[in-house]
Amino acid sequence: MFQAVALLFLMTAGPTQVAAPPIQVDVEILLAVDVSGSMDIEEAQIQRSGYVDAISHPDFINAVKGGMLGRIAIGYYEWAGAVNVQSVVDWQLIEDADDAREFAQKIDKPATGSRRGTSLSNAILFGAASIESNAFSGTRRVLDVSGDGPNNSGPAVAPIRDAALERGIVINGLAVLIRPSQPFAALDQYYSDCVIGGPGSFVLPVHEPEDFAIAIRQKLILEVSGRKAVAVPKPAAFGGKVDCLTGQIQQPGLLENNTLSP
User: Fold this and answer.
1) Could you tell me which residues come within 8 angstroms of residue 176 by beta carbon, excluding any fewer than 6 positions away?
2) Phi, psi of 77 (to 5 degrees)
3) How would you write the pLDDT of the chain (262 residues) with one tens digit per residue?
4) Considering its fold, how many domains does the chain have in total?
5) Maximum Cα interatomic distance, the chain, rounded to a whole number of Å
C-alpha cells in the first residue's frame, strides 16, 4: 500500500525546481564608480565616458576573446555615502563586440550630480554581495573601485575590505587625483594600504582628465587577462603606511552605519 501511494505521489507531483548551474566565465568584474560630492559634474562625466570608451574598445574585446573560455561577466554601480541602487547595471555576459557595446550603452547616460559622503566600505559591502549572488562562476572575481577620496562615512574600510578578500574577491583601485576631494596627496597610497587586496591586486593613479579613459582601459585589460600591473603607488610623503581611518578622523560627522540607499 505504501509503495502504491508513493508511486501515485511521484506521478502527480509537479516538476522539481532545480537551480540553474552558474555560467562559467574567465572572470567576474564589477565596476564600482565614485559619485560623491567631491566629484563635480565634469569629473563624473569623464569617469562614465571613460568606462563607455574602454568597454567598447577593440583592445578590451580582444582581451576577452583571448581568455581560456573567451567570455567574462561584468556589472556596474555608482556609490557615494551609500550605493545608488538606481545606477546599478545588472550583470551581463560579454563574449564579443556586440555584447560589449550593449553593456556600454546601458551606462552611457548624462551624469546627474553627486551625493554626500564617500563610503568605500559601503561600496565594497554592496559589491561583495553582488559578486557572491550573481549567476556566474569565474576563475577570478574582481571588484574594481574608482574614487577620489578616503572613506569618511559608513563602517571602517579595512575590516570590510578584509572580509571581501576572505571570500576570494580581488579588489583593484583607480585613484582619481584630477581634483582630489581634500588635501590628501597620498590617495594612491591610501588605496594601496586600505582598499585593494588579493592576488595580483593593483591601484592605478589618474592625474589628468585626458588620461582617464586610457587608465580605465588599461585596468580592464589587466583584469580580464589576469596580468599584474607594473604601475605602483609612490610611498606616502610622510613615510610609512597611511592611516585607514584618516577620512573619519577628518570628517567625524559623516560616520554612520547605513549600507544602502536609493
Assistant:
1) 34, 39, 43, 47, 146, 147, 148, 187, 206, 212
2) -160, 160
3) 444 434 433 444 555 556 689 999 999 999 999 988 767 677 778 888 889 999 999 999 999 999 999 999 999 999 999 898 888 999 999 999 999 999 999 999 866 555 678 899 999 999 999 999 999 999 999 999 998 889 988 999 999 999 999 999 999 999 988 765 555 558 889 999 999 999 999 999 888 888 888 999 999 999 998 876 554 444 444 456 788 887 766 655 544 444 433 3
4) 1
5) 83
- Distance between CA atoms of 162 and 217, rounded to whole angstroms? 27
| Residue 7 in domain | no
Q: Is residue 6 in a domain?
A: no
Q: Give domain status of residue 17, yes or no.
A: no
Global pTM value = 0.84
Nearest to 189 by CA among 117, 250, 238: 238
CA 204 to CA 21: how far, in whole Å? 35
For residue 262, count CB atoms less than 10 angstroms from its CB and return exposed for 0-12, middle for 13-18, buried for 19 or more: exposed
For residue 81, which amino acid is it?
G
Q: Which residues of 34-65 are buried (b: 16+ CB within 10 A; e: fewer)?
A: bbbebbeeebbebbbbbbbbbbbbeebbebbb
Identify whether the C-beta of residue 80 lies closer than 8 Å to the C-beta of residue 118: yes
User: What are the distances in angstroms from CA 142 to CA 99, 127, 190?
Assistant: 19, 9, 19
CATH code, domain carrying 152: 3.40.50.410
